[in-house]
Structure of Tetrapyrrole methylase family protein / MazG family protein:
Amino acid sequence: MYNNFCRIDDIKNGGERPVFRTGLAMEAKVTVVGLGPGAPGHLSLSVWEVLRKAERIFLRTGQHPVVPWLVKEGISFATFDNFYETGRDFQEIYRRMADTLFREAAGGPLVFAVPGHPLVAEETVGIILEEGPRRGLKVEVLPAMSFVDVICSALGLDPAGGLHLVDGLRLDQQEPVPGVGNIIFQVYSRLVASDVKLALMEYYPDSHPVMVIRAAGVPGLERIEKHPLYELDRLDWFDHLTSLYLPPCPEVAGRCRYPLDSLVEVMATLRSEKGCPWDREQTHRSLRRYLLEEAYEVLEAIDQEDMYKLCEELGDLLLQIIFHSQLAREKGFFDINDVVKEITEKMIRRHPHVFGSVKVRNSAEVLVNWEQIKAREGGGKKPVSILKEVPRSLPALLQASSLQNCAARVGFDWPDYRGALEKVDEELREVKQAISRGMKAELEKELGDLLFAVVNLSRLLGVEAEAALYGTINRFRRRFQYIEERARQHGREVSSFTLDQLDAWWEEAKRMEQAEKKRNNFHAGRKPGRFSE
């Protein structure tokens, strides 16, 4: 047998090993038991019998209130406490523990004892259960009382009402659920408590009550106090037996319903070392073209009035937002949570007529308020030009419309579309004059002026020039492809037909489009689809 208490490195350096009976084959078996929350009375009878009879016992840690009692009762064991002193992180420590147990178990049966319940927040046990059978080991797990049981008992909680467990060291990966009670475990130091507090403040009000629980159910050690969340890291009595309980917070429960987590996790995996080589090579700049392409494909789906395609294309566009957020997260700038938080706060702040007490009579007053709020957000400083807010990277048609809108907000605009229509006629005359003079540079300028004037007319008529031209482009594409198909049916090239024949097919394509649109409208009215319900 071992000495009553030794560490794994002591055994490697000459500590006693158990004496096995010769002539008998030793069974390769690991029995995993739980030592309960900390009081000797929490040990189950079956676990006690195993501990009393076992020849080899390994404790994940000797830092547990029941351990001194085990020593007093003559139970011998080794601990893995030295692994915590030399390991780089918990994943490496748990991996080394499991590998050591696998090697030791090859020489005969052993018992691996862990605090609490073996299947509650015990990663080493998870590794043993997954890999042990593949290594030819028999693995048995004996249940025990967990820290959750004694916390529920101490606080009078019924888990059936909803209870969510979160590892305090993994709040960047495991999110709390404010709609139910949450137990945050592994809050073993004031430093961890500070990190936990900051993370929880993203989900709860700063003054939300928190029950701080140390050594629940352990006579002489139990301590339970209630504090507001913002005071959490001011306490100085955290230890390895400390957990937190946050009661439900219904007023913020809805904040965690958005199912973005799975997509964020997929993108993080694609960008990881074991992910996709192409995704790992991308940068904000290399992704610019894809962001633009996806935005235009959304516009195409809208123009086609195809709701199924629109759903798909919006997903592709959302992926680009997640991609850029992941790149920023890797550099420590921001993540998707910051993106959602910023735009949510901005929309609430800029709509005081909805979320506040401001009264407005029409949409024009909404725009005036919007600009005033933007000015205050900028510290009251006016930009060098109001046109600065229009990105130069926008497509020319969209940029022209945006510039005109900016100028219109300060009164530089036609009273109505009539003035803009006369301007189009004027610019068209100047184009004709430039053509007659045969000056290409002048013609380019006048054509640009004509296009700008048409965009202005579109704006004053309430039509988005970008969408209008995009729709025309798509119609041209479909109709010309119809002409190509008709030419193929005749076994000839398009160029071999007369212009009159091509025009006839063009008109035929238009009539077919109109008939198809009428049928779609009819069926949409008769049979509501997935997106029209």
